[in-house]
Specification:
The protein is α/β, with parallel strands linked by helices. It has 13 helices and 13 strands.
């Protein structure tokens, strides 16, 4: 599983722009994701850019007053070489369709076709790529509509909605109001397999009502049962509960809001965790390569992963000052 964030996209363009032709006069972005890459590329190279439809219609790019005098070309004349940009290429079908349209509607134009991320060195549909990123892969800009959500675990607070303020986290009336009125953050465009939250089971009704209000389509809602809010904090059950569900469901990915918890869930489960806060995929730190290999093997045959969760919890108990008190709860948390 590979992941690239907005920051990664900017870094990839900055680091690999030497691969692009030196005589480009105009950059054309393929909507939607290609517009993001084209904008970054045009800004980095100090060139004008337009979207594909505007280019095909013969429209001139608009260049702001503050940068017009500093650009090598300002888009006021017919461009010589045009660079058509998409964020990525996989099968090549979309880029082939774009090429056909440009050849039909702008015959004779000097066009170079580019994708920032490619899966192999040879793609006949493009002339240049900037970085190889293997499949499966997820980008920050397509996460909430990615088909992997159909086999993923998703945190709620800090991902689908904002985290409660300290004064709202009273395990009482203020907290209930937060659950009902929290503002949404990321909006899923496809069905999510598992919503996994450390909210207490007693707040299921409020949680489900919020999800209905905001049209979040999901299959399962996993909540923390059998403990109080104080016990949850004292025993540090957040990551343990999430790792337990992650292993039980054999999901392909866990999306976690908090970077520290993402690391803990990865250690406990032996599986990849996407940190929304850190914008990275975390793996068990002491055995990253082995964990990647094992995870790919397990997802291929659907078999349970064994004893990694048990050993991870034991290690966490040994580091925790509340470890002795937690021993009594260990049996109920076994996978």
């Amino acid at each position: 599983m590979e992941y690239r964030s907005f920051a990664d996209l900017a870094a990839s363009i900055t680091r690999n722009s030497y691969r692009l032709p030196a005589d480009v006069d105009l950059i054309v972005g393929i909507p939607r994701s290609g517009m993001l890459a084209a904008n970054m590329m045009a800004t980095h190279l100090n060139l004008p850019f337009v979207d594909l439809e505007s280019y095909l219609a013969g429209l001139r790019p608009f260049v702001g007053r503050t940068v017009r005098d500093t650009m090598r070309v300002d888009g006021s004349e017919t461009p010589g070489r045009v660079l058509v940009v998409d964020d990525s290429i996989l099968s090549g079908t979309s880029m082939a369709e774009v090429r056909s349209r440009i050849e039909a509607e702008r015959p004779g134009a000097d066009v170079t076709y580019c994708a920032v991320y490619a899966v192999q060195e040879e793609h006949p549909e493009i002339d240049v790529w900037l970085e190889l990123v293997q499949h499966p892969r997820i980008f920050q800009w397509n996460l909430m509509r990615h088909n992997r959500l159909a086999d993923s675990c998703f945190d709620i607070d800090g991902v689908l909605c904002h985290d409660p303020a300290d004064e709202d986290n009273d395990d009482g009336e203020r907290y209930q109001q937060f659950l009902l009125n929290a503002r949404p953050l990321l909006q899923p465009g496809v069905r999510i397999k598992h919503l996994v939250t450390s909210r207490l089971e007693k707040y299921r009704a409020e949680t489900e009502k919020w999800l209905r209000t905001h049209a979040v389509d999901y299959e399962n809602l996993w909540m923390l049962d059998g403990v109080t809010a104080e016990e949850r904090r004292r025993l540090k059950l957040h990551a343990i509960h999430k790792a337990k569900v992650y292993r039980r469901t054999n999901a392909c990915l866990f999306v976690e809001s908090d970077d520290r918890q993402a690391v803990e869930i990865a250690e406990l489960s032996g599986r990849p965790v996407l940190s929304v806060e850190g914008q990275r995929i975390t793996w068990p730190t002491s055995r990253t390569d082995a964990a990647r290999t094992r995870f790919q093997r397990e997802k291929g045959n659907g078999q349970p992963a064994g004893q990694g969760l048990r050993q991870g919890i034991i290690q966490l108990i040994r580091r925790s000052p509340a470890g002795a008190a937690f021993v009594e709860r260990w049996r109920s948390l076994r996978v």
